[in-house]
Structure formats: C-alpha cells, structure tokens
Amino acid sequence: MTIPADLQFSQASLQDFVDCPRRFYLRYVLRVTWPAVAAEPVEEYERHQQLGLTFHRMVQQHLVGIPEARLTPLAADPDLERWWRNYCVYRPAEMLPDTTRYPEATLTAALAGRRLLAKYDLVVVQPGQRAVIFDWKTSPKRGKPLTLKARLQTRVYRYLLARAGAHLNGGQPFDPAQIEMVYWFAEHPEAPVRLPYDAAQYHDDKVYLTGLIEQILSLDEDAFLLTEDERRCAYCPYRSYCDRGVKAGTLGDDEDDATEDFAELRVEFDFEQIAEIAF
Ligand code: SF4
C-alpha cells in the first residue's frame, strides 16, 4: 500500500519512522490499532496519561484567561496538584515582558511535496525580537538536553516556526536566531531544558526533514523494516503484532540509560499523540 495522499507529516509520525519504519507503516499507512499498552504497570501508565492530559488542558485554559482559582479545584490527584502548584509558582510563560501568547498554535508548511504540521503547547512572542516555544512535560525525570535536541519534536517545532510563523510576528518571518525551545518539566520546574536555534541548524533541519519525507515516500511496503534495536519494542504497543514479545516494558526501574530514555519518551510521546487528537 502506498503512503496515503492526505497524510500530513508531524513530529510524532517522523519520530516513529526514525525509531522503527515498521511502526510508522502500521500506525500511519495501515492504521492498525492494537490493544496493548506501551508500558507496565497498566494502571499507572494509563493514570499518568490521563493526568498529563488534564494538566495540559488546565494550563491551556489558564493561558486563555481562566483564573487560577477556578482551575485549582480540578487538581484533586496528588501528582496533578503538585504539577499545578509548580506551574502556578514558577509561571514559566510569564518570564518575558510585553509578549503575546499563542496557546495551542498550529503551523504547517509544504515540504518535499507534502505537508509538515506542528501543534504547539504554547508560543510566546515578543514581536520583532524573539519567540519562545514552550512544551509541558509531565514525565517523572527531566529529559537530557542532548536527547531532546535530537528529537524530531525539537527539529520540527523550531523549523516550522522559522519557516511558517511570520503571521505571529507582524508578517515578518522569524530569524532562526530569535527562536528558542523550552521543555518545562512539571516535576522539575526549576530546571527547564532550553534549546536556542540558529541559521545553521535551520538549514540542517530543512535538509534532514526533506530527506526523511522523500525517503518515506520512496519506500515499498516491504522496505518498512522492523527495528533492529529490540529494546524499542518493549515500549511499543505493536510488540505482539510483530512477534517481539507480549510483556510491556516497566516504567521507572530500568538502569540502562538508553532503555530508560525509550520508556520516558515513549510515555511522553504517546501522550502527545493523544493530545494531537484531543485538542
Ligand atoms: S514492536 Fe518493535 S518492530 Fe514492531 S512496530 Fe513496534 S518497535 Fe517496530
């Protein structure tokens, strides 16, 4: 089966392709839904997903003007209450003066004959001066800067803001050097990961993202291979479909750095796929 003509590429679908071409094919071409959770224990995984979604909704509502006092009663769970308290104390989006905030902004641009799309938690703009992309993270651990910098989310979000964000800046395209991406961790509010951008990275991202989409469009079905790194399968819902095991990976008790990254990022990015649908 060929890639559907209406498929818009996103950070989530491109990350799936990079992690495992077969996962991309199952999820976005065949659109296989498979009843398996990405991580164990199931109840904790699903609870975390739900709390993360509620936290994102509360922040989004606060950013559009609903008072903190009206939202606070929604944070009944102890984890959610702690995340919300940290958000209210640190006010990460209010650190810049004279800004315009764009919660849940969506940007899209043509690339390699297809559309590339990004849905942002928040873009804060000081017109003519700078733009800061905020992404809220509810994972227990603070992400590693180098891991986050290499993620498709960072590359797609910064690239598209430079490429297609002029209408957020009075009609003037942002210079890449005016753009920064901030991952703000609700469990580690004092230590956000800040990733500045520049013209060289913008050029690299354009070449890389174009090549990635062209590669996907050029492949035959049997070239979407299963990943050789089977550690990725432990946190993938298709593992029984692919005969790569039945039992899900366990959150939080892995001492292997790479496997730990898969677990943390899998949970966070599965949540982002839910969020893309929910909002
Ligand atoms: S189970 Fe493994 S091989 Fe199959 S789609 Fe998931 S990551 Fe790829």
- How much strand? 15-25%
Radius of gyration: 19 Å
Please state how the strands of the largest beta sheet are arranged side by side: 3-6-7-8-9
Give me the CATH fold name: Lambda Exonuclease, Chain A
Task: Look at the structure and give the CATH class.
Answer: Alpha Beta
How would a textbook summarize the main sheet?
A: 5 strands, mixed
Distance between the termini: 29 Å
Topology:
Blueprint: E1 9-10, H1 11-19, H2 21-29, E2 39-40, H3 42-63, H4 68-71, H5 78-90, E3 100-103, E4 106-111, E5 114-119, E6 122-126, E7 130-137, H6 145-150, H7 152-164, E8 179-185, E9 188-196, H8 199-218, E10 249-250, H9 257-278
Parallel strand pairs: 1-5, 2-10, 7-8
Antiparallel strand pairs: 3-6, 4-5, 6-7, 8-9
Helix pairs in contact: 1-2, 1-7, 3-5, 3-9, 7-8
The structure holds iron/sulfur cluster.
Q: Could you please describe the fold and organization of this structure?
A:
This protein is α/β, with parallel strands linked by helices. The chain has one domain: Lambda Exonuclease, Chain A (Alpha-Beta Complex), CATH 3.90.320. The protein is built from 9 helices and 10 strands. The strands form 3 sheets. The protein has a 5-stranded mixed β-sheet with strand order 3-6-7-8-9. Strands 1-5-4 form a 3-stranded mixed β-sheet. Helix 1 crosses helix 2, helix 1 packs antiparallel against helix 7 and helix 3 packs parallel to helix 5. The longest helix is centred in the N-terminal third of the chain and has 22 residues. The radius of gyration is 19 Å and the shape is globular. The two termini are 29 Å apart. The site of iron/sulfur cluster has 13 residues, from helix 2.
